[in-house]
Amino acid sequence: MKNYWDNAISFEEYVQIAKQRLDNPANQQEKEYKQYYELGLQRIDRTWKKYMPDGDQLHTLESKNFKGKILIISEAWCGDASATVPALVKFFDGKNEVKIFLRDSDKSLINQFLTNGTESIPKVLILNEDFSVKNSWGPRPKFGHELLLKFKADPEAYPRETFYNDLQLYYSKNRGKDAVAEILELL
Question: Record's superkingdom (predicted)?
Answer without folding.
Answer: Bacteria
